[in-house]
Amino acid sequence: LTPGVIWVGADDGTVQVTKNNGAAWVDVTEGLAKAGGPRERWVSRVFASSHQPGTAYVAKNGYRHDDAAPYLFRTSDFGATWTSIGRGLPDQPINVVWQDRRNPGLLFVGNDKGVWVSIDDGARWVRMKGSMPSVPVHDLLVHPRERDLVVGTYGRGLYITSVSALQQLSERVLAEDAHVFDIDAESVVHTSG
Fold it and tell me: In this predicted model, what pLDDT tens digit does every residue of 32-44 receive, in sequence order?
């Protein structure tokens, strides 16, 4: 989002950020530890927000330490302070976190049992079911044009599903008696009579 900002997470548990293309780095690991992120757990993913400068998500994985806690954190001030957002996730090490590029409150997490989704920036989590098996998920992305979630698993290949309705979902929509979601114009098939 901001040129020159680079986030780095390492397998020794450190997280650092630069705002000037790497000329100077700030170690933000201490603030992450204060929020509950154990220093020695490796950083499985850092995801810089495409909505807010200074906002990033960090997942730490305790698999190597026989620790299955879901370590997931958010910062909105370039790592000066952190908030734990892993509450409600199952005790499974987190492999990947992804923030949707259309809806800033829409987050996806992949762990060793599948995919979880939050529509409120990590306040609550729900497991994605349907045809998604209980398998280790090591990568996620939402295709910017197709609006499809692409799930990379360990041992079961790729899974793809449309998330355009999730991108429109919010607390306001859930409170309505009925809601008509926008349709994706590119996916409409036109026929001539």
Answer: 999 999 999 999 9
d(CA 94, CA 58): 10
What's the farthest any 2 CA atoms get from each other in the chain?
A: 66
Would you call 100 exposed, middle or buried from its count of C-beta atoms within 10 A (0-12, 13-18, 19+)? buried
For 171, the 3-state DSSP assignment is: helix
pTM for this model (two decimals): 0.89
Pairing of strands 94-99, 83-84: unpaired
Other Cβ atoms less than 10 A from the Cβ of 162: the count is 15
Tell which residue, 59, 49, 139, has the closest CA to residue 101: 49
3-state secondary structure 91-126: CCCEEEEEECCCCCCCEEEEECCEEEEECCCCCCCE
